[in-house]
Structure prediction request, 142 residues.
Amino acid sequence: MEAETQPILTVKRNVTIKAVVTPGFKKYLTYEINQGIEACNVRINQIQELLKRDLGNKDYEAKLSSEKSELVATVEDMRGKLEKVKTLELNSYFLQGMIEGHATIKIGDPIYQKVGGTEVIVKDGIVQDIVVSDKFGFASGL
Prediction:
């Protein structure tokens, strides 16, 4: 006789990444932002060189000008973020972003704990804790 198998389902869930602010993290974040500024400035310079030429295509020139304006705004935004990095309080939490995770569920599982809010706490690139909380605010460390 063949054994019955219970249905299992893998679902997607969002996982929040929070970093503990340390001197090393502030240095890393500053480096990353500066790299972004540098990349934008390289592209801005490329666009400026292209716009100096008579491209003969007004639509293309308008598109380049629009891209340049967006990049200039992005650089200004990143410079503002650099200033905020300086004011981050040590040992506070910094929301680094979201990643997509997966959870396996089966009949009888506590669904809100399985797919509820999940946070990964990172300190200097090392996972310190994984916290899963359901939609009602109950939390449990993994």
Remarks:
- The helical segments are 23-52, 58-87, 111-115.
- Residues 23-52 form the longest helix (30 residues).
- The chain is about 45% helix and 30% strand.
